[in-house]
Write a structure and sequence with these properties.
The complex is a heterodimer of chains A (about 350) and B (about 425). Chain A has about 350 residues and is of the alpha/beta class. In chain A, about 35% of the residues lie in helices and about 20% in strands. Chain A contains eleven helices and 13 strands. By secondary structure, chain B is an alpha/beta fold. Classes of the chains: A alpha/beta (about 350), B alpha/beta (about 425).
Chain lengths: ~350, ~425
């Protein structure tokens, strides 16, 4: 087979001043430069990439320079990388070096985001670069020092080739990279019921087992202090029960909502079924559509307002459908509605759910 | 307690002059079957359709699926099924049951407009539902004007059960072929088995059910579980029609009536009974909408487990969101009492998969089996024939106004597919990190 007829995969390698042999900490302010050859850990990489892929260039930047002049360093490195017309970019491995990990993570994620070129890096699991960039790029695990360079190069080379071929399709634990924070459906060999029984048997035998979902940690928000003066307070109504003006003008989804609506109720004292409805996809709406006040109690609030129980009802209500709604959207709605209520001088809010 | 399932394999379904099984084909006397359902006078319209695996057919909106089964008496005559519904009140799980294995009655028709699902008999959507692999008899009904939704849910639920039992009973009466497979489930009481297998770890299965009222209900021996208390049943009872779905909830993770008799957790625990574990029984329990209800159910589940001496438990959820709290309470109480648990649940991680998958969490829930992200998007092509109403997708959980395109194809969330993420772990789908 004639190798020269085969188009080889073009790999650009990013490394720091130390691995480029320029110098240690005293040369950490080294500005971006490039070489048309593999060097340092790139030699091991080159060997593992052959024969179908080759290192066409090395881009180097001092870790200090990258950390202190990040925007400038990133722009200059990106144009040096782009000049080599890479099919894939490999950064590091950064092992346990924090500043190098930051630079590798930043370069790898920027290459994909800005140049549309697949990229990867490798670092030790405790490198702060993992927490910073795992969601933005592929980070492969490696040892905490340069003794692990040969093994890391082998893994990076294999992954780079797979990435270019579009064959990185399995779960992170199988493909061998730090999870990017995304849950994806896969078809297992065994049905869930069987996997559950197997997992229980492992637990009963005192053996190791692998949970399929590590418990997320909730973002706990401390409640605001209690109202001191209800008589003069402005109160708003916010609901996740899907009450909207008839016809759902903002096209809020019946489930898995990605938006909320804001509706003017100045002068309205009762939510009548000819003007308001529930579009919620998670409960039986017959009663809500007979009297929307059962979900958003405007009638009662107006009566209390009239009696002077509290100062004033805010002249808008905020509504969405809370069923199958992603927590990330719920957090976003909460922040946006909260901000607006604060700016409008609202003192308290009644949240109704279903 | 000994249950014998006489499984007659169904490989095709067709209309015929007589309802019977012949050469692996289930023949349905359409007129007779419609007449059986139409005895209920609150249906304005009753129709039946057939759908077979591999056909270009979409069924929408689907409420429930039921396997045609009937109890066979000592004289060989069918006696009914689903005690409390289509059989006199008696204990399920004993004796002989005829199973038309590979067939399903699928109920279809507008209920509350958004809590049903769809089934594709071929294509990418078919992968995610067991009912793309069954020979389906689809019951399509419309209620009389002005019928209250709760009354409508009830008559449609009962009509599905009645039709499934009718089909199996007529097959039994019309010379059903010999069973292709005999499955026997036999186990003594928890006390007897404990004496037989004193050294095996004792395991219970806590089967959580949506019991939220307003068309979100599950039935045990014909009784609504919602206002009841957690109880203990022999596994045979679950595998033999004691539990019935009355749920109009997100299609992906409701346990259809078909699923209850095929509960894979029950079957998997049973398969290891006497060798690796002592399977004590099943605790069907509630998912209440009020805090006291959640606390009471979780405490009572634990009481039953402790009274039986359980050392391990599997807990399966039904639904997502609010019941995540019940799941957490169950896991927490069991683990704190020293009972090792594994929970089975799906996740609502958003269409991009980047959101937290559960509405509630607890650090005790350390052993989790995932049955998939209900929000993951799926492209499904148009089908040549649609049974039901294709526009219903706009209102199904997991669908939206823009889901159905003019060419009949759809872009939808997994949760709109019937039984795509069932949390009794029937499917092989599960979430992983990427």
């Amino acid at each position: 087979m004639s190798e020269s007829n085969e188009k080889k995969i073009r790999v650009v390698h990013y490394i720091n001043q130390f691995f480029a042999g320029i110098g240690g900490e005293e040369k950490a302010d080294c500005e971006p430069l490039s070489k048309q050859e593999a060097m340092g850990p790139g030699m091991a990489l080159k060997a593992k990439l052959a024969p179908e892929a080759e290192v066409v260039g090395t881009v180097i930047c001092g870790d200090g320079y990258y950390g202190e002049h990040t925007n400038d360093a990133r722009e200059r490195c990106l144009s040096l990388i782009k000049a080599f017309e890479p099919d894939v970019v490999v950064a590091g491995p950064a092992f346990a070096a924090g500043r190098y990990g930051f630079a590798c993570g930043d370069i790898a994620s920027s290459v994909t985001e800005r140049l549309g070129v697949p990229a990867l890096t490798a670092m030790y699991e405790e490198n702060p670069g993992v927490a910073l960039y795992a969601k933005k790029t592929y980070i492969l695990p490696c040892g905490d020092n340069a003794r692990g360079v040969a093994e890391a190069a082998g893994r990076m080379a294999a992954f780079a080739k797979k990435l270019v071929a579009g064959e990185v399709k399995g779960p992170a634990r199988v493909e061998g990279y730090f999870p990017r924070g995304v849950r994806k459906n896969f078809v297992h060999e065994q049905p869930g019921g069987e996997r559950a029984v197997e997992m229980l048997l492992s637990r009963l035998r005192g053996e190791a087992f692998r949970t399929e979902y590590e418990m997320p940690v909730f973002n706990k928000i401390p409640p605001a202090p209690a109202l001191k003066d209800l008589k003069n307070a402005t109160i708003a109504l916010v609901c996740s029960g899907g009450i909207v003006p008839m016809g759902n003008p903002d096209r809020i989804r019946v489930s898995s909502a990605e938006s909320f609506g804001i509706y003017d109720i100045s002068g309205v004292s009762d939510l009548t079924p000819d003007k308001y409805e529930s579009i919620h996809g998670g409960y039986e709406r017959a009663f809500a559509n007979r009297d929307p006040d059962v979900i958003l109690p405007l009638d009662v609030m107006r009566a209390f307002e009239k009696q002077g129980v509290f100062g004033k009802l805010h002249d808008k209500f905020y509504s969405t459908t809370g069923t199958g709604t992603a927590v990330s959207f719920a957090e976003q709605f909460g922040r946006e509605i909260g901000e607006e209520l604060k700016q409008s001088g609202v003192d308290a809010v009644i949240l109704t759910s279903t | 307690m000994r249950l014998e399932l006489r499984k007659v394999r169904i490989r095709d379904v067709r209309w015929g002059d007589v309802t019977k099984v012949e050469g692996g084909t289930l023949f349905i006397d359409k007129k007779e079957a419609i007449a059986v359902v139409a005895e209920e006078t609150r249906f304005a319209h009753v129709d039946l359709e057939l759908a077979r695996p591999g056909e270009s057919v979409r069924i929408i909106p689907v409420k429930d699926a039921i396997e045609p089964r009937v109890k066979i008496g000592d004289d060989g005559a069918p006696t009914g099924y689903f005690p409390g519904f289509c059989a006199p009140m008696d204990r399920a799980g004993e004796g002989c049951t005829l199973v038309l294995d590979g067939a399903a009655v699928v109920t279809c028709g507008p209920i509350v407009a958004f809590q049903e699902g769809f089934i594709d008999m071929q294509g990418p959507g078919a992968v995610y539902t067991p009912f793309s692999a069954t020979q389906n008899v689809i019951l399509i009904v419309e209620p009389i004007d002005g019928l209250d939704p709760h009354a409508y849910e009830r008559i449609l639920r009962e009509a599905g059960l009645k039709l499934a039992v009718h089909i199996a009973a007529r097959c039994a009466e019309n010379g059903v072929p010999e069973a292709d497979e005999l499955t026997v489930y036999e186990k003594g009481t928890a006390h007897e088995e404990g004496k037989k297998f004193p050294d095996l770890p004792k395991v219970v299965y806590v089967c959580m059910n949506i019991t939220q009222g307003l068309l979100h209900d599950t039935y045990l021996y014909g009784s609504d579980i919602r206002p009841a208390l957690p109880t203990l049943v022999h596994p045979n009872e679950v595998l033999d029609g004691a539990m019935v779905s009355g749920n109009c909830v997100s299609a992906c993770d409701k346990n259809t009536t078909w699923h209850h008799v095929h509960n894979p957790i029950v079957a998997s625990l049973y398969a290891r009974h006497g060798t690796e574990i002592n399977f004590l029984g099943v605790i069907p329990t509630q998912e209440s909408t009020i805090m006291d209800g959640k606390l009471r159910a979780a405490r009572m589940n634990l009481s039953i487990a402790l009274e039986l001496g359980a050392q391990g438990a599997i807990i399966s959820e039904e639904g997502y969101g609010n019941p995540d709290s019940d799941l957490c309470l169950n896991a927490k109480y069991f683990e704190q009492a020293g009972i090792r648990t594994v929970v089975v649940s799906d996740e609502a991680a958003g269409t991009d998969g980047a959101s937290q998958g559960l509405a509630d969490t607890t650090p005790e829930m350390i052993a989790f089996v995932s049955t998939g992200n209900v929000n993951e998007m799926l492209e499904v092509p148009a089908m040549a024939r649609v049974i039901g109403c294709p526009e219903a997708i706009a209102n199904l959980s997991g669908g939206s106004d823009e889901s159905l395109r003019p060419d009949g194809s759809m872009f939808v969330e997994m949760q709109s597919i019937t039984a795509s993420t069932t949390e009794i772990g029937y499917s092989r789908v599960g979430c992983e990190w990427v």
